[in-house]
TrEMBL record:
<keyword id="KW-0653">Protein transport</keyword>
<dbReference type="GO" id="GO:0031902">
    <property type="term" value="C:late endosome membrane"/>
</dbReference>
<dbReference type="GO" id="GO:0006886">
    <property type="term" value="P:intracellular protein transport"/>
</dbReference>
<dbReference type="InterPro" id="IPR038407">
    <property type="entry name" value="v-SNARE_N_sf"/>
</dbReference>
<feature type="domain" description="T-SNARE coiled-coil homology">
    <location>
        <begin position="127"/>
        <end position="194"/>
    </location>
</feature>
<dbReference type="Pfam" id="PF05008">
    <property type="entry name" value="V-SNARE"/>
</dbReference>
<dbReference type="GO" id="GO:0006891">
    <property type="term" value="P:intra-Golgi vesicle-mediated transport"/>
</dbReference>
<dbReference type="GO" id="GO:0048280">
    <property type="term" value="P:vesicle fusion with Golgi apparatus"/>
</dbReference>
<dbReference type="InterPro" id="IPR007705">
    <property type="entry name" value="Vesicle_trsprt_v-SNARE_N"/>
</dbReference>
<dbReference type="GO" id="GO:0000149">
    <property type="term" value="F:SNARE binding"/>
</dbReference>
<dbReference type="InterPro" id="IPR000727">
    <property type="entry name" value="T_SNARE_dom"/>
</dbReference>
<dbReference type="GO" id="GO:0005484">
    <property type="term" value="F:SNAP receptor activity"/>
</dbReference>
<keyword id="KW-0472">Membrane</keyword>
<dbReference type="Pfam" id="PF12352">
    <property type="entry name" value="V-SNARE_C"/>
</dbReference>
<keyword id="KW-0175">Coiled coil</keyword>
<dbReference type="GO" id="GO:0005789">
    <property type="term" value="C:endoplasmic reticulum membrane"/>
</dbReference>
<keyword id="KW-0813">Transport</keyword>
Length: 227
């Protein structure tokens, strides 16, 4: 069958029916206290069987459509069998029906309370399942967050390493710039020195030229104009 609970109730019903089916015949053959004891026993077992059948009917309503026909057929047969045993019991003990109506009503009330408790337990079970599902979702979310955190940490480590490499490159570039600045300073000093030497050489050359012109003028004067 589709429901494990339905199968359990089926086994309980079979056990109760096996006890009930022999009682009407035994009642017809005994008297006094023994007969009363059998009537009470039948009444109790019949109530328990009705409760089991009610539980099976509840399971039937919750069963998938493909299983309901077979389950419904079984349930009708079981109710028919219980009805037949009840009629046999009334035949064997004429006062059975009226004597047991009050007790049966009490059992129905008890069963209603049990059914309400069962519904409450099912509701709590549904809430528990919902809470478990929420917890599983939260756990999965935490796991995803941890994976993202690990990935982010790895990315951060890679970025730090890359920045460290770039810092080393910048340090080397700065050192090269410092060296280049020092070289330029030395070059400017050399150029200034060369410029001073050039100016000095120019002045010396001008003085020499002037002296040569003076000497040449003196020679010409002495040779051509002075007698």
């Amino acid at each position: 069958m589709s429901s494990e609970e339905f199968e359990k109730l089926h086994e309980i019903y079979k056990s109760l029916y096996d006890e009930l089916k022999f009682i009407p015949e035994r009642v017809s053959k005994c008297h006094g206290e023994e007969r009363k004891r059998l009537v009470r026993s039948f009444d109790e077992r019949q109530g328990e069987a009705e409760e089991v059948l009610q539980g099976m009917e509840d399971e039937l309503r919750a069963a998938p459509p493909s299983y309901r026909n077979a389950m419904s057929t079984k349930l009708r047969l079981y109710r028919r069998d219980i009805g037949k045993l009840t009629r046999d019991m009334k035949s064997s003990a004429p006062g059975f029906g009226s004597a047991s109506s009050t007790a049966q009503g009490d059992r129905q009330g008890i069963y209603a309370s049990q059914n309400q408790q069962s519904t409450h337990l099912q509701s709590q079970r549904a809430l528990l399942l919902q809470g478990t599902e929420s917890l599983n979702n939260a756990t999965q979310s935490i796991e995803r967050s941890q994976r993202i955190a690990v990935e982010t940490e790895q990315i951060g480590t890679d970025i730090i390493e890359e920045l460290g490499g770039q810092r080393e490159q910048l340090d080397r570039a700065r050192d090269r710039l410092v060296n280049t600045g020092e070289n330029l300073s030395r070059s400017r000093k050399v150029l200034r020195a060369m410029s001073r030497r050039l100016m000095t050489n120019k002045l010396l050359l001008a003085v020499i030229i002037l002296m040569e012109l003076a000497i040449l003028g003196a020679v010409v004067y002495l040779k051509f104009f002075r007698k």
